[in-house]
Design brief:
Elements lengths: L1 H15 L1 E8 L17 H8 L4 E4 L5 E14 L4 E14 L5 E8 L12 E3 L8 E3 H9 L5 H12 L2
Antiparallel strand pairs: 1-3, 2-3, 3-4, 4-5, 6-7
Helix pairs in contact: 3-4
Length: 162
């Protein structure tokens, strides 16, 4: 009888130990994000480099956010403790109505896209007379300045010479 109780107790303890895995999204080649170029790369190029996004959303300014996300949690439970290991990678890329990459945001375990290479020097604003700023510098300033979407597009076209 004692032997059966011990065997039953041991079987119960073995059943208490276990493991579980939960995932959101699917893995994507995160290093390929670094191959994209702001102002140049298109949604088609992003999809060819990263695969289909986990989600696509459009905001009130007409930007389309492509969201690549993969989260995996592995949990193992023992008799005394539980161990959870989580890996996470995420890239949210904002594209304008023209389908070109405006910016990357909320990058988690993903390298940033390359800023557009300066194509030409454009005269600076009147704040610095005589100074010349590259297209890249102007685009960086544009992205860090709060403004309406229409104003952003107007200035973007002006910088890009469109």
């Amino acid at each position: 009888m004692t032997r059966m109780l011990r065997a039953g107790a041991l079987a119960g303890l073995v059943l208490l130990a276990g493991c579980a895995t939960a995932t959101i999204g699917k893995p994507f080649p995160a290093n390929n994000v670094a191959l994209l170029r702001t102002g140049i790369s298109t949604t088609a190029e992003a999809r060819s480099l990263l695969g289909e996004p986990h989600q696509v959303q459009t905001n009130q300014f007409g930007e389309t956010w492509y969201i690549w996300q993969y989260i995996r949690s592995d949990a193992t439970a023992g008799l005394v403790s539980t161990n959870v290991q989580t890996s996470h990678q995420q890239a949210i890329l904002a594209f304008g109505p023209d389908g070109r990459l405006l910016r990357a945001q909320q990058l988690i375990n993903v390298p940033a896209p390359i800023a557009q290479a300066p194509a030409q020097a454009v005269p600076a604003t009147s704040a610095q007379p005589g100074a010349v700023k590259s297209q890249e510098q102007q685009l960086q300033e544009l992205q860090s300045t709060p403004m309406s979407y229409e104003e952003y597009q107007r200035r973007y076209r002006e910088i890009m010479g469109q």
